[in-house]
Amino acid sequence: MQDWRKGGGAYPxxxxxxxxxxxxxxxxxxxxxxxxxxxxKETEQKMRHLAQHDALTGLLNRSGLHEALGQILTRAxxxxxxxxxxxxxxxxxxxxxxxxxxxxxxxxxKVVAQRLQGNVKQHDTVARLGGDEFTVLLExxxxxxxxxxxxxxxxxxxxxxxxxGEHELFVTGSIGISLYPHDAxxxxxxxxxxDIAMYRAKELGKNTYQFYSVDMNMAHQMSHLNxxxxxxxxxxxxxxxxxxxxxxxxxxxxxxxxECLIRWQHPQLGLIxxxxxxxxxxxxxxxxxxxxxxxxxxxxxxQRWRQQGFAVPRIAVNLSVRQFRPDLLLNQVTKAxxxxxxxxxxxxxxxxESLIMTRINEAVAILHQLKQLGVKVAIDDFGTGYSSLSQxxxxxxxxxxxxxxxxxxxxxxxxxxxxxxxxxxxxxKLGLNVVAEGVETQAQMQILRDMGCACAxxxxxSKPLSALDLEAHLVHSAKQLSGVY
Length: 485
Ligand SMILES: Nc1nc2c(ncn2[C@@H]2O[C@@H]3COP(=O)(O)O[C@H]4[C@@H](O)[C@H](n5cnc6c(=O)[nH]c(N)nc65)O[C@@H]4COP(=O)(O)O[C@H]3[C@H]2O)c(=O)[nH]1
What we know:
CATH class of the largest domain: Alpha Beta
Number of domains: 3
CATH topology of the largest domain: TIM Barrel
Number of strands: 20
Distance between the termini: 101 Å
Number of helices: 17
Structural class: alpha/beta
Low-confidence stretches: none
CATH superfamily of the largest domain: EAL domain
Largest sheet: 8 strands, mixed, barrel
CATH architecture of the largest domain: Alpha-Beta Barrel
Strand content: 15-25%
Shape: elongated
Helix content: 40-55%
Radius of gyration: 30 Å
Bound molecules: ligand C2E
């Protein structure tokens, strides 16, 4: 109940009443005890707040969201209004957490929370479900365009640089959207649908959004759960294969190397691309034995071809962030070289620019150790990460690979031409080899050659080939060279 203080002002009071009875059980009196309830009420409110809010970001947590969603559902159904549930998952957050540690990850999450709140209206609800998963509830939406505007604003805001201590970090977000009442009428189903749509956004290349649609449901159930289970058996059942994409010297037209690209030959689903299963393998740790298999298979296969007389000057193998640990990687590489007899200088390890830059100190040490083994190191997707030039100069690198996204825009996009040329000049100044990825047209090849780019790979020359097809290609080239054709 509410009571009034003597000096004025209301306060919450607790009134407890008990009856006093005589020996015949008749009520003779009542005892009323008043107590000031202010402190207890404050503690209760504090506990309620703690139970419903995320301690790190101050946003609603899962349980708070649950309650808010229940209230919004009631309002929306009584007033016949629609609302949208956005499920947001950060891209590459795990890499930052794994490489720079949880403190840095936590600071980044706080900024993400601020950016989300800063880009929605005050009455919209922002929550953190845990890890790098957030939700936003947008009430009273009438057109999808309204939602798209907010979502695009959020994606832009998330993609801006994060300054955490001395680190300049970049992450993006993938957003799934489900609509009430269009996609579901219940909270749990709305959440599930938005989650499925978010996975679809990830599959489409991340840093994008997707509205839920019914056909996503089936595909998602098949893809994620089943793939995860089946991947566990893929290695031992020998369902993994290495395919090889040739790289050519742009000046001589000669084979300059091969990039090894993993494939999964699933008995029912057919050939599965690495973009679908490498993220799963990275999540569940299977990437470590898979990466080991790739290294061994690549070294052995290429050494066999070299022994058969085919000139394969270089073989490039992709590394995942989880393999990039000094104890693990050096051991794996040394063993693969010993087992195959492949000369170390033929093996080039491709690491992404962001992997190196987010763990620069450790990366420098590992790269130096690899150098001592004699293997080469290439930076993959160069131009998409955030290398500072002074850091780049200190890294013991051999090759820069110009990311496919820049080559794609050549010749139409003037910016892309300038970026590609700048990378070629930079590589030359630093004494590094440079390989253009994803060359699809003759025009791209010629422009790159005129820029002085040393090597290229892409569909213009050849798609990745199975070991059998590549071998046929090698035999064919060898015969041409020896004049048999
Ligand atoms: N549109 C277009 N695409 C082209 C062209 N030329 C090559 N590509 C594709 O571009 C990707 C190049 O590989 P990446 O950037 O290292 O990107 C790779 C790499 O990051 C990862 N990956 C592949 N194999 C392995 C592996 O053995 N270990 C690890 N950790 N990651 C791998 O999966 C990614 C995707 O591999 P793929 O699906 O094989 O896709 C390959 C290749 O098939 C072109 O002209 N046009």
